[in-house]
């Protein structure tokens, strides 16, 4: 029972990281109907940038904010130069961003090398643990990651449902042409959302890079996981991304313990089951 | 957009494709005698170009005639290569039997992928096939008892049929060339058969085809399975060429390689893939002399092609013609001047997107 709860908690904290990555992807898709395949690249780049900043300044929060902002700015550049012209051509956007990820992987390997790094945190946080009933001592760091994910998730939901800009975004999701006709500059909204989505991936990279090693290949892994999360949860839904992330996190942790070789295969089986029952994902709207 | 409604080709347009095809085959046949170091050129450029082309051709077939862009074709080729590897290395069976098992395994894998993915469309299909490919990669690099994990299965020896010894590099090259041409002919035949025409109908208007009584999903699955067969053939050539099969064969990098080949060659052109494959193999062999960042260079070429020549090398002729036509004719009757020329290039990727 103890072990069961421990694995469940591990799954939830892992889900926190998955949610942070996938929320950016689902946000961008929800509004713009394009998929950015460079999302894993944004994750890894954010992690590396956060690592450099945190190492130089000794401040984890500066690293997290810096990683998010810098990756967001890069997202703005990519959106303006490569994506904006092909707004209505989702296939070409997917392919172009795949090309971006190809370049990103190579350049990051050149700059940051092939060895694993981890975003540094103050020593006492690194080793601190909290006592949780039925489980015993549990690393504080993992709980903090979960907390960050929950805070970001709640903030995003409030931002989308309670603010004026959020209502513009929702209107854009429903019908971007009608929204433009009412005088909203949809192009600016698109750009802001793309930057926000990229910045979320960058933040996720710093947070994930604190728990897990950053190394070449992780960009592909996190692209895959965020795709699976949004397919399972439903494209374009923040709540869906949260549900998807929790399911994927739990399945991958439990299978790691009970059937290690088939961890990814089982995660994938989850996706197949969801697709078979609900092709649009759990919270997705039928297309 | 489909050939059905294309206007009758006249003059240059009619014989040019044949002349071009003939010239390409002639160069390919004479290739071993044209190069200075056949021992380098034949395996590294010739054979690799052909199997990359075959796998990319299966992708292009699906995109052009079914409107599905699949990133799992490399995975299918990898399943087929692993089939050969397991039979020849683990069970020590002869090549012919192993090749049959590989073909069946790859085609079956394609069928299963189609069962899962055919329920989805366009961008979803792309994402799901990418996910399936990555899952297979992860499994292949871990399942030590089947795939020997990261070390892979080796050696896969080239067979000696007596009358044809594939260990001789020139014979091997011609053997592969014949396979490549057969695959191309098979794809062209499938595309122009009733089956292919039905597929284009399904692509252009699934609802009408359904109303006419066609089982749209079954056609999509059948086409994906056919493309998987072509990719499996490519996988068998691949495993013979590499003499081993390891997870790198199905990695994200290999998937992107094939995608790059298809896009550079032109995702609407079955023959163009070989031009794209040639560009990629030349880049990968010679760019290393210029720069360490070969992947970056490939990525840049890929993006530039997508930005400026979305129909790839195969579409460049049309694009140039469109440009010249626009220059020559006065503005007011420009719309009558073959507007499809640059438009079709612009929409090459989404041309077949399902409604």
UniProtKB/TrEMBL annotation, chain A:
<keyword id="KW-0813">Transport</keyword>
<comment type="similarity">
    <text>Belongs to the binding-protein-dependent transport system permease family. LivHM subfamily.</text>
</comment>
<feature type="transmembrane region" description="Helical">
    <location>
        <begin position="188"/>
        <end position="212"/>
    </location>
</feature>
<keyword id="KW-0472">Membrane</keyword>
<feature type="transmembrane region" description="Helical">
    <location>
        <begin position="139"/>
        <end position="160"/>
    </location>
</feature>
<dbReference type="InterPro" id="IPR052157">
    <property type="entry name" value="BCAA_transport_permease"/>
</dbReference>
<feature type="transmembrane region" description="Helical">
    <location>
        <begin position="257"/>
        <end position="277"/>
    </location>
</feature>
<feature type="transmembrane region" description="Helical">
    <location>
        <begin position="6"/>
        <end position="29"/>
    </location>
</feature>
<keyword id="KW-1003">Cell membrane</keyword>
<keyword id="KW-0812">Transmembrane</keyword>
<protein>
    <submittedName>
        <fullName>Branched-chain amino acid ABC transporter permease</fullName>
    </submittedName>
</protein>
<keyword id="KW-0029">Amino-acid transport</keyword>
<feature type="transmembrane region" description="Helical">
    <location>
        <begin position="224"/>
        <end position="250"/>
    </location>
</feature>
<dbReference type="InterPro" id="IPR001851">
    <property type="entry name" value="ABC_transp_permease"/>
</dbReference>
<feature type="transmembrane region" description="Helical">
    <location>
        <begin position="60"/>
        <end position="83"/>
    </location>
</feature>
<feature type="transmembrane region" description="Helical">
    <location>
        <begin position="95"/>
        <end position="119"/>
    </location>
</feature>
<dbReference type="Pfam" id="PF02653">
    <property type="entry name" value="BPD_transp_2"/>
</dbReference>
<keyword id="KW-1133">Transmembrane helix</keyword>
UniProtKB/TrEMBL annotation, chain B:
<dbReference type="InterPro" id="IPR043428">
    <property type="entry name" value="LivM-like"/>
</dbReference>
<feature type="transmembrane region" description="Helical">
    <location>
        <begin position="260"/>
        <end position="283"/>
    </location>
</feature>
<feature type="compositionally biased region" description="Basic and acidic residues">
    <location>
        <begin position="344"/>
        <end position="355"/>
    </location>
</feature>
<feature type="transmembrane region" description="Helical">
    <location>
        <begin position="122"/>
        <end position="140"/>
    </location>
</feature>
<feature type="transmembrane region" description="Helical">
    <location>
        <begin position="69"/>
        <end position="89"/>
    </location>
</feature>
<feature type="region of interest" description="Disordered">
    <location>
        <begin position="328"/>
        <end position="355"/>
    </location>
</feature>
<keyword id="KW-1003">Cell membrane</keyword>
<keyword id="KW-0812">Transmembrane</keyword>
<feature type="transmembrane region" description="Helical">
    <location>
        <begin position="12"/>
        <end position="35"/>
    </location>
</feature>
<dbReference type="InterPro" id="IPR001851">
    <property type="entry name" value="ABC_transp_permease"/>
</dbReference>
<keyword id="KW-0472">Membrane</keyword>
<dbReference type="Pfam" id="PF02653">
    <property type="entry name" value="BPD_transp_2"/>
</dbReference>
<protein>
    <submittedName>
        <fullName>Branched-chain amino acid ABC transporter permease</fullName>
    </submittedName>
</protein>
<feature type="transmembrane region" description="Helical">
    <location>
        <begin position="218"/>
        <end position="240"/>
    </location>
</feature>
<keyword id="KW-1133">Transmembrane helix</keyword>
<feature type="transmembrane region" description="Helical">
    <location>
        <begin position="295"/>
        <end position="317"/>
    </location>
</feature>
<feature type="transmembrane region" description="Helical">
    <location>
        <begin position="95"/>
        <end position="115"/>
    </location>
</feature>
<feature type="transmembrane region" description="Helical">
    <location>
        <begin position="172"/>
        <end position="197"/>
    </location>
</feature>
<feature type="transmembrane region" description="Helical">
    <location>
        <begin position="41"/>
        <end position="62"/>
    </location>
</feature>
């Amino acid at each position: 029972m103890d072990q069961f709860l421990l694995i469940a908690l591990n799954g939830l904290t892992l889900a926190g990281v998955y949610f942070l990555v996938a929320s950016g992807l689902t946000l961008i898709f929800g509004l713009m109907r394009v998929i950015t395949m460079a999302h894993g690249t944004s994750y890894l780049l954010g992690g590396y940038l956060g690592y450099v900043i945190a190492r130089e300044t000794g401040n984890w929060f500066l690293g997290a904010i810096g990683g998010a902002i810098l990756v967001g700015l890069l997202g703005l550049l990519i959106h303006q130069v490569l994506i904006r012209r092909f707004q209505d051509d989702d296939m070409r956007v997917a392919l172009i961003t795949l090309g971006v990820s190809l370049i990103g992987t190579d350049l990051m390997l050149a700059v940051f090398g092939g060895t694993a790094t981890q975003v540094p945190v103050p020593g006492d946080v690194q080793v601190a643990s909290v006592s949780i009933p039925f489980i015993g001592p549990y690393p504080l760091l993992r709980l903090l990651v979960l907390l960050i994910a929950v805070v970001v998730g709640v903030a995003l939901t409030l931002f989308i449902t309670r603010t004026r800009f959020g209502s513009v975004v929702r209107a854009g999701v429903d019908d971007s042409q009608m929204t433009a006709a009412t005088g909203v500059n949809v192009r600016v909204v698109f750009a802001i959302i793309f930057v926000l989505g990229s910045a979320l991936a960058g933040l996720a990279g710093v947070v994930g890079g604190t728990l897990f090693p950053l190394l070449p290949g992780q960009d592909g892994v996190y692209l895959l996981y965020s795709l699976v999360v949004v397919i399972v949860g439903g494209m374009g839904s923040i709540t869906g991304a949260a549900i998807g992330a929790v399911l994927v996190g739990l399945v991958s942790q439990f299978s790691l313990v009970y059937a290690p070789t088939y961890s990814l295969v089982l995660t994938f089986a989850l996706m197949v089951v969801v697709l078979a029952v609900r092709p649009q994902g759990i919270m997705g709207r039928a297309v | 957009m489909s050939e059905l409604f294309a206007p009758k080709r006249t003059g240059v347009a009619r014989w040019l494709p044949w002349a071009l095809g003939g010239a390409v085959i002639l160069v390919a046949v004479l290739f071993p005698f044209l190069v200075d170091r056949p021992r380098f050129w034949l395996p590294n450029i010739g054979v690799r170009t052909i199997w990359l082309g075959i796998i990319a051709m299966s992708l292009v077939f699906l995109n052009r005639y079914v409107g599905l862009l699949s990133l799992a074709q490399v995975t299918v080729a990898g399943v087929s290569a692993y089939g050969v590897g397991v039979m020849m290395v683990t069970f020590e069976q002869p090549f012919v039997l192993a090749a049959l098992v590989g073909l069946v395994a790859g085609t079956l894998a394609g069928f299963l992928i189609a069962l899962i993915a055919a329920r989805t469309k366009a961008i979803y299909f792309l994402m799901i096939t990418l996910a399936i490919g990555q899952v297979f990669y992860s499994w292949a690099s871990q399942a030590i008892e089947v795939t020997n994990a990261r070390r892979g299965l080796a050696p896969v020896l080239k067979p000696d049929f007596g009358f044809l010894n594939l260990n001789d590099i020139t014979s091997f090259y011609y053997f592969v060339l014949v396979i490549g041409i057969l695959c191309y002919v098979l794809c062209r035949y499938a595309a122009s058969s009733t089956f292919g025409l039905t597929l284009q109908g399904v692509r252009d208007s699934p609802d009408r085809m359904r109303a006419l009584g066609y089982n749209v999903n079954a056609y999509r699955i059948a086409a994906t399975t056919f493309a998987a067969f072509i990719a499996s053939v490519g996988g068998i050539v691949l495993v013979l060429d590499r003499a081993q099969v390891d997870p790198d064969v199905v990695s994200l990098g290999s998937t992107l390689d094939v995608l790059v080949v298809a896009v550079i060659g032109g995702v609407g052109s079955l023959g163009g893939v070989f031009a794209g494959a040639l560009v990629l193999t030349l880049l990968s062999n010679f760019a290393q002399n210029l720069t360490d960042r070969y992947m970056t260079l490939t990525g840049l070429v890929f993006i530039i092609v997508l930005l400026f020549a979305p129909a790839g090398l195969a579409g460049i002729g049309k694009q140039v013609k469109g440009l010249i036509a626009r220059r020559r004719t006065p503005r007011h009757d420009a719309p009558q001047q073959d507007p499809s020329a640059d438009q079709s290039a612009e929409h090459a990727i989404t041309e077949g997107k399902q409604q």
